[in-house]
Amino acid sequence: MTSGRQSFVQGAAILGAAAFFTKLLGAVYRVPYQNITGNEGMFVYQQVYPLYSTLLILATAGFPLAISKLVSERLAEGDEAGARRVFIVSSVTLTLTGFLFFLLLFAGAPWIAGWMGNREWLTLPIRAVSFALLVVPLMSAIRGYFQGHQNMIPTALSQSVEQVVRVATILFAAWWFMSREGDVVSAGAGAVFGAFTGAVGALLVLLMFLRGSGLLRQVPQAGPGAFAGRDSVRYVAREIWRLSLPICLGSLVLPLFSLVDSFTVANLLKWSGWSVASSVEAKGIFDRGQPLIQFASFFATAIALSIVPAVAEAKARGESGKMEERSSLAFRLTLLLGLPASVGLAVVVRSANVMLFEDASGSDALAILALTTLFYTLGVTSAGILQGMGNVILPARNLLAGVAVKLVLNLLLIPWWDIRGAAAATLIAYAAATFLNLAAFRGQLGRMFRLRETGWALATATLLMAGAAAGAQALLTAVTADWASHRLAMTLTSLGSVAAGAAVYGIVLLGLGGVRREELRVVPKWGPRLVSLLESRGLIR
Fold this sequence. Notes:
Blueprint: H1 8-28, H2 30-76, H3 80-115, H4 119-130, H5 136-148, H6 153-180, H7 184-192, H8 194-213, H9 233-271, H10 276-286, H11 289-305, H12 308-316, H13 320-357, H14 363-370, H15 372-388, H16 393-439, H17 445-449, H18 451-479, H19 486-511, H20 517-521, H21 526-536
Helix pairs in contact: 1-6, 1-11, 2-3, 2-4, 2-5, 2-6, 2-7, 2-9, 2-10, 3-4, 3-5, 3-9, 4-7, 5-8, 6-7, 6-8, 9-10, 9-16, 11-13, 11-14, 11-15, 12-13, 12-15, 13-14, 13-15, 13-18, 13-19, 14-16, 15-16, 18-19
């Protein structure tokens, strides 16, 4: 296993690259899926998808890290046999736990589907996704074992394979069932079954690495006292749950936002007098918002969070000045990218809606959801910085408060304002959670965001960007009004409007000194190249 070790920086880079790839693929696939299955298919998938997200986070956020800690502790003491015993105990424990949860979810599917408001449509998809629980726990144990050896390649490769196989299953199942039967329930069930096929693909990759590591040929002998003391089943299981539970709870808060919508939106619409078909259609349209927000926030969060490990490093070294400087850079880049993305998406959402989803249904609600992008990106960055500073519980608690706000506002606003009320509830809830995070930096926010120095430049650039995007959209809509393909016309309109807005924003922001050379230079990987490009064109001070 020694040859497979990487430095901390290399390991973080490998896992970061895998996470970037999986998130990019995860942000894209819903568009073709919706195009194949329609709004009803989107409803079926998105009602059950939060359950899959919960399972995925349970498998990736807590257990591998806990197991890797126990394994690495024993390896540091030269106890390779002890590390293998930890792996065996954790594998058996987690597999049995997964099997129990599988039985509960499979058997309880009719009741869960009923609580979600449509037992006929959702029972089969919930049962389909439950099979992932038979595979994911063992996969987590193997990932944790390799990470304990500081070998991140098996985890990174298996994550990539898992996402590719899952997305391929989703799109193939959607095409197969819709083309042969036109059955959105079967298409949705086949799509969420991708959680199982993806996990199987990842497990096969991990088993190949496991076989190559020699672990399968070096199973520790179960002699007297072999699984006693700190290697006992009870001790290892208790330690795994103790270490992983805070991480799992913190990571599970985000899927709770979607779970709130799964259990409330369609139900509240029906209780307000909507027919079952209309409520299903409306919830499917509302669910278009998630990929739109992922598109808009993708690069803002990717760039900002690439700086967060440097915050943790400065904290560990006791370099408070560097820690504040890097936190400030992460915040400013998030604001510089998140604000125009949020406003710009709200401006072009109607044409983008047609471009991606074939019609403009629900554009008002999606415009409200688009404004969530700013608070989502700032929330992710602030949570990452707080965690880098060692404060793991606070951002999870704040997000949980946001979930509570979301639930209350859904109950109040949906009967009055349909899916626009749900969108407004999401916007306000994310804003509340983000402001609670930012409150932890009170007294420092002025320095971190540099709003006194550059706030007017940012505001001016954003307003001119919105005007340019709106003007380009109006012009291109008029020019393409007679085109035979409305979707093609809206594609040109959307992309042209985004390009016009982005160009105006960048030129005005740089021209007014809203971003400095030294800020861009320290952005990992991209910064120096971008500075050189801008300097060669005289666009940065």
